[in-house]
Amino acid sequence: MTIAITQERFLVQRKVEYDLLLHRHTGSSRETAAAAHVPEDHIAKAVVVKHGVDYTIVIIPASRWLRMDDLRRELGRDLQLATEEEIAQLFTDCEPGAVPPLGPAYGVDTLLDEVLNSLDDVYFEAGDHEQLVHIRGEGFQGLLRGVRRGYYSHG
Predict the structure, then answer these.
(1) If 32 and its partner were Cys, which of 26, 75, 145, 149 is the partner (CB 3.0–4.6 Å)?
(2) Over the stretch 36-80, which tens digit does the pLDDT of each residue have?
(3) Which residues, in sequence order, are bridge partners of residue 61?
(4) How many CA atoms lie within 13 A of 127 on its CB side?
């Protein structure tokens, strides 16, 4: 598989340079970091949560965990993790479990963990389990301009 078409269009429309990093098939962010020889905390991981029928992507470093209770309090919503089936319906051009952290490209509300703001290089799922998109930190920040930001993870 190549990069998901929705992601590719989003990157091209916004004139963000990127390259693809191939790695062996992996089943977790930790495995991906090891296989691709990149720091796990430089991989932007998308966690999909829901409130009723509304979905939100929370982008956190792959080395960290989502602070779900704090997020519920901050947003004032009874959030739950989205199911695999729900995620597959939102990201039809991606393999299950390879959710890209580009909510705006898919029309999904997005929150960005401030921990990712200081990175020079960011990596994220290309839509499968064998490639990462690599972009400069400023490009990543530009793609997510206007999304809500905060501290949503713990290490």
Answers:
(1) 26
(2) 999 999 999 999 999 999 999 999 999 999 999 999 999 999 999
(3) 44
(4) 18
Yes or no: domain 5-154 corresponds to CATH 2.170.130.20: no
Cβ atoms of residues 152 and 146 within 8 Å = no
Q: Shortest CA distance to 56 belongs to which of 5, 95, 99, 92? A: 99
Q: Is the pTM of this model over 0.70?
A: yes
Determine the length of the chain: 155
Residues 6+ apart with CB under 8 A from 137: 117, 118, 119, 120, 121, 122
What order do you get walking across the sheet with 121-125 strand by strand? 19-22, 131-136, 121-125
